[in-house]
Amino acid sequence: MDTASHLTLIVAPRAVKLSEIPSYPTPFYGGDCGDGCNVKTVFEQEILKVLTEIKNKPNWNKKIKNSEIREKWIKELLSHFEEQVINYAIDEALYYSDIFTGSLVPGAVDCTYIVDDCVPEELLNDICITIRSTEDVSSTGVPKWDSITGKGKTKFVIPTKENNKYLSKKYQWLPTEFDINANGFVDILSYIYNLHPEIHEKMWVWHVEGMYNEEVVATGIYYYDQENITDSYLAFRQCFCQPTHSKDDYRGVEEIYDIRINEPKSQLLCEIKTKKNMLICFPNIYQHQVQDFELKDKTNPGYRKILCFFLINPNKRIYSTAHIPPQQLSWFEIELMKNKNKLSELPGLITEKISKTLDWPISLEETKKIEKN
Known about the structure:
By secondary structure, this protein is of the alpha+beta class.
């Protein structure tokens, strides 16, 4: 079972004019490949494969400085890759190991970052206990997370400017307004959708996140708990712009880039090995896919639980929970019974019938109907 809880974030910038913030690439706008990346040559793809092998090793940024360990890795890699490719990848990894000396390290792909063991064990236990409360539908009205038991085949579809499939005029994820001060402390300026401010006070296809109107520019995934599962990887690929070439020089393009005309314009980049208490951050320009994993011991249950954080483009103002009041009927009923009024004196069955006649807020049953449609 793979379970996830999602938080969409708007970070309010401090002492920075929005006009000074650079624009962010998007997979939804900009022709047949969005803001596509530069296509990578076969040589560059091989380097990425070597970097993936290196950077999936624990504490690689420290171990690679040990000459004995480094030579051992090179010897292992020589059976699969050319020496020139390995040397280039080793040089790049050594360069970054001098810059990133702590737990934060870059992933194999540009603009991806990883933190192992990013939360102290005591705090991690508190997080697991707190999040369990959101799994109780009866007391909170929050739907249980979906269990992933299998995957169907997926077809890659190229987004275009004219294709409204990637733009919704009716629905939108509701992000939360956050403020990060100069000392790095975070304040929630609105509320987190589906997490009651009092009850929760403590608290697999290739895809990019959100739709064009939701303006997600980056994703952070925190793997906070797992039990009895095999190794799992998060794979990345990029949509690229067609490289320039001589007329009808299809063979040359295939030799240099390993791409073929009339095939989907996407290239596999790397797979990052995931584990408990690990954080991965990456730009939303990359497509990502959870790779297959299964139970280690088929006779016992297993699970993996993650928290997803979506960062909204600070250049664009969209609707958030600062603009939209809570829509949960159960929350409305809680607040209604708190107030000393005539309605709160009525029997529970009567107030329940009155609540069912209201068009708003939305009940859990109505929410499920909307999601299904």
